[in-house]
Prior knowledge:
Blueprint: E1 8-12, H1 15-18, H2 26-32, H3 48-61, E2 66-70, H4 73-76, H5 85-101, E3 104-110, H6 116-119, H7 129-144, E4 150-155, H8 157-165, H9 177-199, E5 205-211, E6 214-216, H10 221-236, E7 245-249, E8 253-256, E9 264-265, H11 283-293, E10 299-303, H12 311-330, E11 335-341, E12 360-362, E13 368-370, H13 372-383
Helix pairs in contact: 3-5, 7-9, 8-9, 11-12, 12-13
Amino acid sequence: MTFPDGFLWGSATSAHQVEGGNTNNDWWDFEQNPASAARWSSGDGIDHFHRYADDFALLASLGHTAHRLSLEWSRIEPAPGQFSRAAADHYRRVLTALAETGMTAFVTLHHFTLPRWLASRGGWLAPDAVSLFARYCARVTAEFGDLMPYICTINEPQMIALHGYLEGYHPPGVTNPALWRRVGGVLLDAHLAAVPAIRAAGGLRIGLAVQLPLLAGSGSFVDVMRHEIVDRYLDGLTGVDGGDWLGVQYYRKQWVDASSPFFFAPPPQDVPVTQMGWAVHPDGLREMLHRAARVGLPLFVTENGIATTDDTERVAYLRSHVAAVRQAIAEGADVRGYLHLSAFDNFEWSEGYRPKFGLIAVDDDFTRRPKPSAYAFADIIQED
């Protein structure tokens, strides 16, 4: 079976991971705090802020027909209610350069980072966080709506809540189960508030990107965690105007353990894992695409990839997970694109620059070097 006509192929990045110099957000402050979980500073990133045009041209030359990137809220609105003309002009140049390659843009408006001014007021727990996010979304779509055919409001709301408010692994570094659940609900509300704010621009296709791990384990607590991490978001998009498409992000099979401080257990010893310690289980992507399909929206795989220094593992991972997507489509899932994470080796949040997710290596002098997996992915695209 071939993929459907018009199926989109590409890769993903996010602003803070690649741009460099994003010093006005909560992640920068988290990185500078020696007591935080962050291993080192994002620093200059891979200098994509200045090299975006060459980066887009390279990806297009590798056969990509789509690219996912994010806008940095703290650049666009560096102080509350103050919107930067220079940042708006910069991102218009970025999105124009992307359009000129012929790749379809998937633009994420919030990918993990909050402006420092909002973080200092409580971040997603601030009483006006939802309305402030909706205002930002409206401003961005008014500025760039002509260059953003696909808009993702929020990247992985479940992981923002889980990592930031239960595990303390991301900003604000809190470990509070009650706040974890509360923030998860706020983020869903923020997406639902952003949809009408974006619709005012007209003609844009709006989505939410959710990470859907395949949860495993015994006992009823697995169902509790499945509700908190998967179903509350899928259910929350059902029967309302939750957008026009849904992004599914899949990396791993994950074991649940109610006795663990953060409710997860490491994979069994005989299970292959990535640099991140994540269990490789390709069929989980097929299963989670079917689970997401119940929302009734077209699906895109907006992230899927492996952290490894062995690029032959990446090639095998790519082929096995693309095969899982193909099987899901054959079984009736409405999947319309696959975006690999990551386009480049880049800053991987609290893990710093150690994990290698990229199709393209980046040297210390910022030279880009496509790996064999980049060409293997090009072959997969060509085969389609």
